[in-house]
Amino acid sequence: MSALNSEIQYLSGVGPKRAALLRSELGVETFGDLLRIFPFRYIDRTSITPIRDARGDLAYVQIQGTVVSSTLIGPGGSTQMAKGGPVEIRAAKRLSVIVDDGSGQMEMVFFKGIKWNYERLKPGSTFLFFGKPSEFNGRLNIVHPEIDNPVAGGTEARGTLTGVYPSTEKLKNGGITGKVMCKLQSAALAMCLPEIKETLPDYILKENALVPLTYALRNIHFPADSYALQKSVRRLKFEELFFLQLSLLKQKYIQSRGSVGLPVTKVGAAFNACYGSLPYELTGAQKRVIREIHNDMKGGHQMNRLLQGDVGSGKTMVAVLSALLAIDNGYQACIMAPTEVLAQQHFANISRYLEPTGVRCALLTGSSTQKERREIHSGLEDGSIGIIVGTHALLEDNVVFHALGLAVIDEQHRFGVDQRAKLWGKGPSVPPHVLVMTATPIPRTLAMTLYGDLDVSVIDELPPGRKPVKTAMISDAKKGTVYNFMRKQIELGRQVFVVYPLIFESEKMDLNNLEMGYEEILKRFPDPDYKVAIVHGQQSAEVKNFNMSAFAVGRAQILVSTTVIEVGVDVPNASVMVIESAQRFGLSQLHQLRGRVGRGADESYCILVHDFKTSKEAKSRLELMCRTNDGFEIAEEDMKMRGPGDLEGTQQSGLPIKLSIASLAKDGLMLNEARVYADKVLNADPSLELPVNRLLAEELRKGKYDMKDYSKIS
Ligand code: ADP
Ligand code: MG
């Protein structure tokens, strides 16, 4: 039995209890797994700041001090002296710990983990505290510092840099403290080092100036010095990103060689008729993307392409022209939207574009009548309907195509993998070409990973004459100003969106907010001078559609709603977007919402209303919105602001793979380097069959770098 694969409970110092903890908290099963739990920072024993020298503008400080007092602060805000009874602890809203290091005193504040910290930060005991100092009421404090045992003497660390490992309350309670973790790593290294095998071939190490794996593992846990650490981190990050990209690109190589695609070669009458009667010139980016799509579809392989384009960049036209390419070659096309409202809107627009072509287009949604359905089903089956627009209803089994050649999926993030697979099956005998369109700008590094095996086209140019939306933030204490502004815009004949957040956990409360806001607006904008419509998720589809269209056709000047309008709705006459409790929205959502205005020729506005509780982070999000209209810039900033911790593994990003050391937010350059290099390796040896690449093939076979089928749209 090899040491690397030995069960973790048999490592000296572990045992069954700790093994269970390591498994549940860190996913560690074997010695080898443990070695892949890396420190996320290092304590440099030479850099402890005396409290006297700490300042609020430092990015972080490391303080070593003794607990003087520890105070639980109750719900009423009144200070209760700690008696240690569980009732007081449970009732406490905050824990305040005063620390003294001989040069001064500083407060450590906890809003979470109160019981645990209260019990371990006993007066008289000494700890190392690490965190961002901030000023509060003229005093310095650290909120939720990281806490370690003091470093003076008795540590196991060999160099001056001591690794700090990810930890949890349960781990520490179970005796796996930072110090113990260092000991375990040391034991695991001693057992495993002799049998650790290099994962990268020699030539790759040389060409990329990487240190060997054994060196890297030794020094990432116990750095000889900061230079050794730096080289080790680089090696391990490169390895991770390289294999990730190698795995993705290999799939892509196999797919593009193996798959058969319907031949969509000629540009024919329908395409030309539509193109010739466009009311505007296509942007350069639209033309380029259509060329890319055509090249894909005529290439003999199935197209799997992601089309990214900011809101308003003109993706619909690209979809229509691509569909017409399919039609000119004897196929049908379907265009699928995530909501009924959107499908209707697409249908209306597309029908207009299709007028000069004579191509028959139909709409199929959940509310199509039986009679309509029957007609559509037979039209699709006999091929007389060329383009079908619809919602999930298109996926139903009784929807059968004569010859489906292209499936366009709008706003892909709302569709599950299974659903996409269903579309797949609707091709004649060969699966249709697939074009996924998304208006959610994704940072490049994330796109490279999530869609690493897809081809990506980007419309990076807005139609000419588009004015950026003027954006401002305002405190809700000044709502009067907002109402006045709305009134003026309505006098000019414009329409206004007012959006409220609706977040799952507190749905009831949010709905109350929305209804109160609605009442307030009705009072400020009374009938019959004004008409106000309201739309939210709790309404029936019928009511929702009715109210929505009241606004869309201009019968109502104001639409009060939750984020149901987030996606795609096009009301060119709407020039103002008021977002209530804007601090509660994420950046990408704010950007999507703002994209609902600024579609006509008029100047348009986005007003971000926030309340007094808005945190610093939320403020900086809103400030970013005021500063730029560029969705990609916002996405990049968003990723930086929230950091990899929030992004990776969250629902938001849905990142289907867990990285142990590299970060998509911070290691973009290296990711690029790794991708280019992986591509070079595969170019020379697409199936990794050459003896020099034996190690690579072996490593990939372990499956560590397989993505869940998330990125597969096919
Ligand atoms: P999105 O990419 O958000 O789906 P749309 O396809 O809805 O964007 O296009 C937004 C608006 O821009 C539509 O009203 C459309 O008619 C218009 N549009 C699209 N392409 C151009 C162009 N090249 N020049 C001028 N207007 C355009
Ligand atoms: Mg669109």
Please explain how this structure is put together.
The structure is a single chain. The protein is of the alpha/beta class. Helix content is 40%, strand content 17%. It has 24 helices and 23 strands. The strands form 4 sheets. Strands 2, 3, 4, 5, 6, 7, 8 and 9 form an 8-stranded mixed beta sheet that branches. A 7-stranded parallel beta sheet has the order 13-14-12-15-16-11-17, with helices on both faces. Helix 9 (226-258) packs across helix 23 and helix 10 (269-276) runs antiparallel to helix 12 (315-328). The relative contact order is 0.09. The protein binds adenosine-5'-diphosphate (ADP) and magnesium ion (MG).
Strand content: 15-25%
Low-confidence stretches: 153-158, 644-654, 709-714
Quaternary structure classification: single chain
Tell me roughly what share of residues is in helical segments. 25-40%
Radius of gyration: 30 Å
In short:
The chain is α/β, with parallel strands linked by helices and 714 residues long.
SSE layout and pairing:
Layout: H1 15-26, H2 31-35, E1 41-44, E2 61-73, E3 79-80, H3 86-91, E4 94-100, E5 105-110, H4 114-120, E6 126-131, E7 133-136, E8 139-143, E9 146-148, E10 161-164, H5 169-173, H6 178-192, H7 202-207, H8 213-221, H9 226-258, H10 269-276, H11 284-298, E11 304-309, H12 315-328, E12 332-336, H13 340-354, E13 361-364, H14 370-382, E14 387-390, E15 404-410, H15 417-424, E16 433-438, H16 444-450, E17 455-459, E18 470-475, H17 479-491, E19 495-499, H18 507-524, E20 532-535, H19 541-552, E21 558-561, E22 574-579, H20 587-594, E23 605-610, H21 616-627, H22 631-647, H23 668-684, H24 694-701
Parallel strand pairs: 5-8, 11-16, 11-17, 12-14, 12-15, 13-14, 15-16, 18-23, 19-21, 19-22, 20-21, 22-23
Antiparallel strand pairs: 1-10, 2-3, 2-4, 2-6, 4-5, 6-9, 7-8
Helix pairs in contact: 8-9, 9-23, 10-12, 11-12, 21-22
Magnesium ion is lined by residues 315-316, 568.
